Each structure stands twice: as structure tokens, then as C-alpha cells.
Amino acid sequence: MHFASIVPSAAAARRAACAAVLLLAAVGGVQAQQAQSMEERLRAQLRITTSQLQQAQNELAALKAGQGPAAAPAKADELAAMKEELSRVKAQLAAERESRKKARDDSVQLKEQAEAALEKAGAQVAQYRNAYDELLKMARASEAERQRLASETSTQRTAIGQCEAKNAQLYAVGKEILHAYETMDVGTVLSARQPFAGAARVRLDEAAQQFGDKLYEGRFDARGTASAAAQ
């Protein structure tokens, strides 16, 4: 019977969904660690660039104040490059944060999808289990009915055998009665009718009793057959 194959297939789907959830959690954790590491590096770079920019601005202000006017254009160019670098780092940091937010949103969406698949697999397992239990109940009922019919068939066969045996006995008794009447002479019959022919009368009564007993033994009783089959 292929009923049991239903449950393993549903259980496999449930295990696959569980594995997907675990894999998703692991991948999400790795992605979160990678995103956090990248953001930390960008923040460190931003701090360094900001510090350098602040230092360059201070130096440029000092140059403009008269401490070294010849180096002012060079410092201005360096300051512009640092501002450009700062803008670039800020843009990278913003992009990294956006990417991290998108990855987090995708992770949440995938987790919800995996949980929905897991719930659906659980519902299918319950559905298959109910169907399996119902089919198993029907199979057991069919087997019980088959055994009952087999028992009835056995009882009927026993009754038929007993009927045949009783019929054979009755046939034999009938032949004995026929033979007795065929071999009985007229004198025996007449003597049996005389009031003082006791011996002949007794013999006939005994013969009649014996034939009656044999006929009684040869009768068929259906209740006896049923009780014998039940034992």
C-alpha cells in the first residue's frame, strides 16, 4: 500500500522549508556582518578625511593670515581635493547604508516567504496525515468485512457437509425400512394383529423404535451447525 509514501513526501517538504529558513538566517547573518564591517571602514575613513580636511582648513587659514602666502594656492588645491575626497566617502557611506537597508529588507522578505512556505508545508502534512488515517480506517473496515464473509462461508460449508451426511443417513435408514417390509411375510403381519401374539408385536415395536431413533439422529439442526462453527 502506498499510503505511507504520502507522509514522507510532506515531511521532506517541511524539512526543506526548515533548511531554507536556517540557510536564510545564516546568509542574513553573514551579509549583516559584511555590511557592518564595510560601514565601519567607511566611517573610519570618513573620520580620517574629516580630520585631514580640518587640519588643511586650519593651515590654509594660517597661510591666509600671512604666515606663508606663497603656499596658500597649494593648500587651497589640497583642501579642494580633500573636500572632494570627503564628498566621495560620504557618498560611499550613504550608498553602503542604502545597500545595507535593501539587504535587510530583502532578508526580511525572504524570511517571511520561507516562514509562509513552512506553514504551508505544515498544513499539507496535516492534510496528508488526515487522508492517510481515513484510508487506513477504510482498509481496516474492509479487512474486517472480508474476515466476516470468510467466516460465514466456512459456516455454510460446514452446514452443507452436515446436510449431506444427514441425507446419507436418512437414505440408509429408508433403505433398511424398505428392506424390512420387503422381507416381512404375511404370517408375521397377521400375528402382529392378534391380541395374544406378544412376541411378534414386541419385535415390530423394537424395529420401529430403532428406525425412529435413526431418523431422529439423521435430522439436520442449523443451530447446532452455527454453534459448532463459532467454537
TrEMBL record:
It comes from the Bacteria. Residues 39-152 form a coiled coil. Keywords: Coiled coil, Signal. Residues 1-32 form the signal peptide. This is DNA repair protein. It comes from Pigmentiphaga kullae.
